[in-house]
Amino acid sequence: MSNDDSSKLVLVEKRGTTTIVTINRPHKRNCVNGPTARALYQAFLDFDDDPKAAVAILTGAGGNFCAGADLAAIKNQDEANPLSSEWPDTLPGPIGPMGPSRMVLSKPVIAAISGFAVAGGLELALWCDIRIVDPTATLGVFCRLRGVPLIDGGTVRLPQVVGRGVAMDLMLTGRAVKAQEALKIQLASCYPASYETVNETPALNQALAMAAALAEHPQTCMRKDRLSTHFANPIREAMLKEFELGLETLTSGEFVEGIGKFFKQTEKKRSRL
Q1: pTM for the full model?
Q2: Are 40 and 21 in contact (CB under 8 A)?
Q3: Distance between CA atoms of 141 and 149, rounded to whole angstroms?
Q4: Are 54 and 89 in contact (CB under 8 A)?
Q5: Could you give phi then psi for residue 132, rounded to 5 degrees?
Q6: Alpha helical stretches, state H, 190-252
Q7: How many beta carbons lie within 10 A of that of residue 216, not counting itself?
Q8: Contact call for residues 123 and 98 (beta carbons, < 8 A)
């Protein structure tokens, strides 16, 4: 059983026209389990329905954005991440394994990335319209090292953001991408806008400044142009294929063996404490 308080898995704060959605599992580096995924999904449904909200910021508590799905939740059906191939072609879209990752909202979302944004956490960041980093940020497809597949948009969105060649490098190697490189390959940026120098200001503060600037624009025009960009790159079918291939991996002996090693390593670390 989890010791998490389900009412505090995701914190929502409103500052003027900005809604801050914070994954609040710092003891797990903000890894997302089923209840957290559902709380995130509801938070963004509420944001999209709020006429006073113009921009959302997705971030994590305790110095990390999100270190992916909570692999420990696999052992508990009540805490397992949502896994469904059902995807009605209606907006804003259904819940995904990490929560909001299948949603198409009517308003922009900024990822404020400090610390780790890896594996499923990178998929959440890629779902956002803009990714803001500070010097502490580390991004990457770390699930490659565990034999855990990308099943929530990573193989689809990452090539769209950085190009197929760089995406293949990151997906196949599973290597870490620090903030400076993230800017160079345009995986992320800073605010004020820069793809050259990492801003020392914490990512959340940068994102708040950007959100305030976006809220000053004529909203109908900005939102329609943003939505048009999403429709110009439809990803529903590609993500369903990704999900199908990912499920094949999850039911393979390789995954069972890999996840078994992960749990054994985790137990050894706990026994040393």
Answers
A1: 0.92
A2: yes
A3: 9
A4: no
A5: -110, 130
A6: 203-215, 219-232, 236-250
A7: 10
A8: yes
